[in-house]
Structure formats: structure tokens, C-alpha cells
Amino acid sequence: MCLKSTTWIFIYQCSEYIGLPFLYLFIYSIHQLFSDKISSKKFFITVSILGFILCTIRYANVFIFISSLPFVFFLKGYSERIKFTLFSTIVCIGMLLSIYLLFNYLHIGSFASESKRINNETDHFWKDTYVDFIGFINLSNPFFYLKTFDYTTKTKLFLSFIFIIIDFIFWYISFRLLKKTKNIFVKYLVIVAILNGIITFFAAMAQGIEPLGIRILFNSSYLFYFALLIVIRENNVLSDKILFIICLLSLVYNCCFIVKIPSNFLFYKHAVEKVAQNKSSLPKYYFDDDEKVIETVYTIPIINKTFYYTHENKQPNYIYKAILRLINPSIIFLDKAPQENNSEIIYSSEINNFIEHKKSAD
């Protein structure tokens, strides 16, 4: 049920999939603590290490532990040992992370490269906030992440309205299933998932780096779907066969959504590889100097209504980056034009020119 998220992060080589095994071990340890199947000492040592690793892989993972604190304070009906163990472990993770951030500050001049990560532009603040809000609503949808933010036409406005309604329907179904559960582990997952999403929402407002989407909300999605799956299986809401079919459909849909037109990807892959091979050395940098944008034209049958849409993952720059990352995983994508031209830099114009020459020759 988390294939929407896992498919996306594995395809696009995000840092989230590196932390996925540690996140799973953290969830397993929490389950063992609530089930009284692990000693306080073993839990403290294990989860402190796991938590520190998660936070160093991705700073946003600290929100998981911040979201756990309210749950600890309002936890009722459980021994003080469990509450104290969980609280002391979170404090230990915080102390370890503080030491790590202090080390960064002393050696690189910032705690988490915040000077480079925070976007101070406020021109589109409210639009970005609205986009983040829609992204947060999509948290309940385990299948697809489709949003339209351009409301210049009635068609796009109608589609956006339909997508939002579908997301709210998933919220309604989810809470109908979750509200009666007495499983403390499930309650923990749901509370942390929602609080993590809320904290991430406000962090995105403050930083303005990128809109909330599958990658940014991965932790919340993973925890929320994990809880939902437990409740579905505990109450026999759906059989394992139906769950498998749902997951299979989700996998097929998300793979098709990501790939879309395989022939185009293979064509671009050949062009990028040829340009890279013509360099005297393996390209270490990439810069999009052409900024070429391709619009997809859609025509609705019968009424012959035509509209244009710019697909992010159909843009040459987007595809070039993905292919270059396969050729050289450590390649650096430049945001500003380099001061000098050298063989270590590959430009989008070089690839586009190669493609144009190839088309002319054919």
C-alpha cells in the first residue's frame, strides 16, 4: 500500500530509500517496546543508534522523534517504564544530533547548509503554501499523486477539484477504519504520521525549498499506510488476495506514470551517452543552458477541446539529469552558469544539438 512512495523514491534515487531499512527497524523496535518484548536497555541503545543514523541520512527525519514526544506525554494505561524508555531515547537522539550539528558548524560554518537550503523569495508564498496544503491532503492517497495548480481553464479547475475529493474520500475511509482500533502501536504510527506531516508542512512554509510531495512526506506516508495495513488485516476488512491485487495495480500504475513513453527515454539515453563519450573525461558537472520546455497537447474527443500541459518528467532537462546520474552517480547539477567552459561540464545545449543533427541525418 506504500508503493506510490517506494516506487517513486527508488526510481529517482532519493536519500529516503537509503534510510528505509533503518526506518523499518525503528518501527519494529517501537512495536517490541509496546509489546514488552524488548528490555529498556536494549531498546535505548538500538533506537538511539537507529535514530541518529536516520537523522544524519536526512535531517527531516528528526521530525519523527519530535512527533513522538506528544504521544509519550499523553500515553495512558501503559507502564512508566515504557514512557520513560521512549522519552529518554528521544532525548539521547536529540543530544547526539546536537553534537553532530555542532561539528558541522565548526567545520563547514553552518549546521545543515541552511544558508543554501532556505529560499528567501516570498513572491509566491501563498501559492506555494496552497500547493503544500494540497500535498498534505494527498497523504491519505496510497495510489497516485496527481495535482493541477494551474486554474486558467475550467477543465484544469474541474480535474483539481476531483483529485482533492478523491483524497478526502481516502481520509474518510482511513479514519473509519482507524478510529475503533485499540492497538497502541497503530495509534502511535497514526499520530506520528500526522504530526510529522504537519511539522513538515510548516517547515516547508518557512524554508520554501520545494512543494510537499511524495519525497518530502515519505515518512508520514510510510507510517500511515503501515498502520492502515495492520488494521485492515486485524479486522479482516480485505483478504490478502485483494490487498495483493490492489498493490499490484498501484505498482503498475506508478511504473507507467513514471516511465510514460519508454522509447523517448531510450532515445535520450543514447544521445546523452554519445555526448558524454565525446568528452575527454567523464563529465563531473551538468548545466541546463537551453532551458528547453516541451508542452504536451491533449484533445478531448467529441467536443474537440484542446489544452496544453507541461509534464515535469517529460522535460529534456529532467530526463538528462536522470540519465547522467546513471552514468556518473556523483555528478553535480549546477544552478548557475559556470564561469568557464571545460570538458568536465556537459551542457543541455550540447545534447540538444546532437539530437537535432541526428534527426536531420535520419
TrEMBL record:
The chain crosses the membrane at residues 6-31, 43-66, 86-108, 158-178, 185-206, 212-230, 242-261. This is Glycosyltransferase RgtA/B/C/D-like domain-containing protein. Keywords: Membrane, Transmembrane, Transmembrane helix.
